[in-house]
Amino acid sequence: MIYGIGTDICDVRRIRASVERHGERFAAKVLADAELAAWRQRSSRWPERGLRYLATRFSAKEAFSKAIGLGMRMPMTWRHCEVANLPTGQPVIVLHGALKQWFEARGLRAHLSVTDESDYAASFCVVEKI
Fold first, then answer.
1. pLDDT at 119
2. Alpha-carbon span 77 to 43, nearest angstrom
3. What percent of the chain has pLDDT over 70?
4. pLDDT tens across 20-32, in order?
5. Where, by residue number, does Mg(2+) bind (predicted)?
6. Is the peptide bond before 75 cis (omega within 30 degrees of 0)?
7. Which residues span the domain enclosing 64?
8. Beta partners for 89?
9. How many folded domains does the chain comprise?
10. pLDDT for 118
């Protein structure tokens, strides 16, 4: 049974402006530790690729927060929601801390799709009750 659906589109230019204004602090606020390491690696080799990576993660977390019905309220936090990839490349939500406990207590499972183009990143998330 579907618990919730969320979608988000993010303007990569807005993410670029935030990084230019706040530097790495912005990325550190939005990304979990593993994501932050990946962002640094991608940004060092190709800055534009790093920005799109950050934008897709921002968008995916927004879509997930909408699908669970919390928005950006506790226990939903940027850093407790991580977007990882399976060996196949499929994006998955990995939760930590109180958000993980909240999600598991409700018997939920998330399905995620992300995409990006030069100026936009978009995400779609379906959360189901298992």
1. 94
2. 24
3. 100
4. 999 899 999 999 9
5. 8, 62
6. yes
7. 2-129
8. none
9. 1
10. 86
Is 8 within any annotated ligand binding site?
yes
pTM: 0.94
Tokens 């939903």, located at residue: 76
Q: What 3-state DSSP class applies to 86?
A: coil
Count of other CB atoms within 10 angstroms of residue 68: 22
Element (H, E) at 1: none
The CA distance from 78 to 108, in Å, is: 19
pLDDT for 53: 96
Give the CATH number, domain containing residue 26: 3.90.470.20
The structure tokens listed for 15 are 């993410």
**Under a CB-based contact definition with an 8 Å cutoff, are residues 67 and 95 in contact?**
no
- Please, what's the b/e burial string for 70-87 (b: 16 or more CB within 10 A of its CB; e: otherwise)? eeeeebbbbbbbbbeeee
Residues 6+ apart with CB under 8 A from 124: 5, 6, 7, 63, 112, 113
What pLDDT score does 74 carry? 95
